[in-house]
Hints:
By secondary structure, the chain is an alpha/beta fold. It is 38% helix and 15% strand. The chain has one domain: Alpha-Beta Barrel (TIM Barrel), CATH 3.20.20.80. The protein is built from ten helices and eleven strands. Helix 4 packs parallel to helix 6, helix 7 (220-241) packs across helix 8 (274-288) and helix 8 runs parallel beside helix 10. The protein is globular.
Amino acid sequence: MILRKFLLLTLGLLILCPAKNWGQKINGLSFVGTRINVNKEHIDPVKETAANWVALMPYGYMNSAQDSSIKFDLSWQWAGETKGGINQTVPFFYNDGIEIMLKPHIWIRGGVFTGTIAFESDAAWSQFQKSYKEFILHFAQVAQDSNIALLCIGTELQSLVAYDPQFWFELIDDVKNIYTGKLTYAENWDQYHKVPFWSKLDYVGIDAYFPLKSGINPSLEELISLWKPYVQDLKNFSEKENRSILFTEIGYRSIHRSTVKPWDYSVREQPYNGKVQADALEAMFLSFQGKTGGLEGLFGSGFLIMLTLVVFRTQPFRHRINLLKT
């Protein structure tokens, strides 16, 4: 039970950020959906951190990357992955002054990457688009009804973006007919520059698993240096699009070489290394601290805590979290 409790939390950090009045900092945490209805015991660990925002993530399911139907709000889903679970969770955070981004996700059986979704016919693509629209508009209504401040309309769907960009322009218009809050879309660190509809959204959302190619124990200074070209590229992109950037996911595992491919959770045999995780997070934080060029804030990614939950309560990771409260 203790183990399951801490799977609910993941890392959130501070950069330069909006809140519901869009003038405060976002210290974002991804709150992984609970099996049962949320209670105070689930919320208290969030309050112990510097978090003033959480991302809630309802899920839709596909049997394969060629399945043209997204299934959601199913009887066998965990409570926190459904409309009912979101509605039940929201008041707990609002009562503690914590704002919310609603970030619907697709899960493909076997953990297949959503960016590989593809179909052999236009008819199958059309069916998938219809299903995806129903999925997003369903949760846009949930966000509107619960007065949720920020809605993410998709996560790492590069193949769908490339196949039919016009679909997204129309989808955003349909969402705006339902939902009156802020909008973003979460694209991968190596694909965000290919998204053609940032001008229709309030923020450029990036799942910021930028590779920092280093050895087993890189120094803090080395990691900061590796961030520099990304910081400049993001600043330039923000100016080009006239949009602030939100890191919709970011994090590192507590293993050797966790900065090299921070998105890769398939590696199982690396030794524990809490220091490189903590240094990587602090390097990211320091790389943007005090910058005025376009970065609005960030949310930690959901899977990372499953691999770093011991570190969350102990070792250097916990120390770095406490630093964010100052």
